[in-house]
Structure formats: C-alpha cells, structure tokens
Design a protein that fits this description.
By secondary structure, the protein is of the alpha+beta class. The protein has one domain: Jelly Rolls, CATH 2.60.120. 35% of the residues lie in helices and 22% in strands. A hairpin with a 2-residue loop joins β9 and β10. The longest helix has 30 residues. The radius of gyration is 20 Å and the shape is globular. The termini are far apart. About 3% of the residues have low confidence.
C-alpha cells in the first residue's frame, strides 16, 4: 500500500509538551459564527466590450462593490468570473492524483520545480504547525516539461489554470488601483505562483491548524476551494468561518495592496482549520511584483516606509526562521 501522507504526526508529537499554548490560542480565538463573504457578479467586467449605458452603470457598481469589500472585509467572492467549472474540476482531479503519490516520491523526485512542502519545519510550538502539504510552483516554471515527470496530463491543465487566474487577478487588481488613483498598475508574472494545497484528515483536529494564522504577502490572492470548508478569517476582532459556495472563487487582499492603498484595503488575518473526517483541496494564485519593485503608498502621508518586494520577502524569511512565524507589515511602519 502506497504511503502518500507526510510524517505530520511524528513532527507534531515533538511539540505536544506545549499543548497548553494551543488551548489558550483556541479559547482566545473561538469562532463565533459562519459567514458568507460579499458575493460579486463580475460578468460585466469580463464582458467589458459591451459599452451601452446600462452596462457602464453595472460596471461602475461592480467596481465599487469590489473596493468596498476590500476595505471592509479584505475578502470577497466572485461569480461569473470567466474560469469554467470544467477546467476547475479538471485541475482538482489532477491535483488529487498528484497528492496521492507516495510521500517519498513527492519529497525527493523534484516534482514541480522541487516545490513540495509539508507541515512547518520552523515551528517551535503547536500553534505554528500546519497540518497540510502543498506544491508552491512559480509561474515561470509551469510550462517546463521537466517539472512534471510522469504527470504529463497535469502540465496542460496547470498552464490553462495559471493563464486564466493571471488574467482574472490582473483585472481585479487594476480595478482596485484605478478606483484609488485613476491609473492602472503594471502587474508582472515574474514572481507570481500557484500553490496546490492538500489538508489531510487530522486525528488532533480540535487543536490543529491546517494552515497557521497569517496574512498574504502579495497584492491579492485568488482561491478555488472545495466543499469541505475550514477557511476562517478575522472580522471585527473575532474569527468567522467562511461558508464554501459552489462555482465561486474567493479573492483576498494581500499586504502589498494594504501598503499601496495606505491601509484603505485590508490584508486580514486568516487561517485554515483541520478536520478529522475529510481531505480538503484548494488552489491559490498569488499576484506578486518583481523583487526590485518599490512598494509605497499611493497617497501621502504614508503609514509605511518604502521597501522593495525582495526586501519584504527576505524579512519574512528571516522572521520565520528565527521565530517560527511571519511578522509582516509591522516591520515597515513609519
């Protein structure tokens, strides 16, 4: 029998002596309710070629809804987004086949640019540990045959998904940029990436994160999740569980848009909770700039000092290595 699971339990057991830290975090961050994120139909933005008066009013209202949700929630859902359900189902099927491969092969054979990750090797206490595995694939590598090995059918569907999510991310990002300063931003694909996530059933699900509390370090993220649920976000100083919705994609604001908007758009804390019954799969697209792109606020006075994306990533890596978790934007406050 193939053992496809990473040795999560063995690593977690080494942290059990700090079990009380998990319980304290759970009590302080108890989920109070399940929520439905703002739901925005973006058909009018996808079909932007139609310029009649009614459509223009619809487009303006749609853009305002996107910006309002980004300010009030930092998260929203989109439907009629132009990415076909058939393509998303095909990607999910290929993703499941990939994760059902033996752990030894996933971790040693260099699949998807040697991007396989599991758990959190930098964790120093249980609340920093993630009960999950993932492939973290740069867009620049997705077209390379050498990434895929025997998974030849994965290449075409990943390329198609990456292209579709890239177009959607750029569309939404430019809406957000134009509404604040009446100009589009050049969003590049040099450091963008896809992340294929698998959250395994967890025997310690009452106390375990599938993905630890964090904010995203990009401009924005597009997430395609399955029906299982587990995503939670911080709203009004309490955790709320996000109710999965068929055919909707979730969009969330990242740290860079919070800086650029001078805190108008919110990069909010979110996490994924483990469960003990079902596997959960998701696909995330992260819209990032080049490493030498200077990040600053679009209006003054700025809340943050300017920094390059490369400097931001390096600081996150140092903090994670030294403390087991990301510090993020507080490092760059003026």
């Amino acid at each position: 029998m193939i053992n496809s699971s990473p040795p999560l339990l063995q690593q977690y057991r080494a942290l059990l002596k700090l079990h009380s830290a998990v319980q304290n975090e759970k009590q302080n961050g108890a989920v109070m309710e399940e929520c439905e994120l703002p739901l925005i139909d973006i058909r009018c933005l996808i079909n932007a070629g139609c310029k009649d008066g009614n459509n223009e009013k619809e487009r303006v209202a749609c853009m305002e809804a996107i910006c309002q949700a980004s300010s009030e929630w930092g998260f929203f859902q989109v439907v009629n987004h132009g990415i076909s359900p058939k393509l998303l189902r095909g990607m999910r099927a290929e993703q499941i086949k990939l994760f059902e491969t033996s752990f030894e092969k996933k971790s040693t054979c260099g699949l998807l640019n040697n991007s396989y990750r599991w758990g959190n090797q930098a964790a120093s206490n249980p609340i920093q540990f993630s009960w999950s595995e993932a492939f973290h694939v740069p867009l620049t590598k997705i077209s390379e045959d050498t990434c895929y090995g025997e998974f030849t059918s994965l290449r075409d569907v990943m390329q198609e998904i990456a292209g579709a999510m890239s177009r959607l991310a750029s569309l939404l990002a430019n809406v957000l940029a134009e509404r604040l300063c009446s100009q589009r931003r050049p969003f590049e694909e040099i450091t963008c990436f896809l992340r294929l996530n698998h959250y395994l059933p967890c025997p310690a699900s009452v106390e375990m994160h599938g993905l630890v509390t964090h904010t995203d370090s990009d401009f924005l993220t597009i997430l395609c999740q399955d029906h299982v649920g587990g995503l939670q976000l911080m709203k009004d100083s309490k955790w709320v569980a996000v109710k999965p919705m068929p055919d909707a994609l979730i969009v969330n604001i990242g740290d860079l848009f919070q800086v650029w908007s001078n805190n108008i758009y919110k990069s909010v804390y979110h996490r994924v909770m483990a469960n003990d019954k079902a596997d959960r799969y998701s696909i995330a697209y992260f819209l990032c700039p080049s490493n030498d792109t200077l990040i600053g606020s679009c209006k003054e006075p700025s809340v943050y000092r300017k920094f390059t994306f490369g400097q931001y990533r390096n600081q996150i890596q140092r903090d994670t290595k030294e403390t087991g978790s990301k510090v993020g934007l507080p490092r760059f406050l003026l």
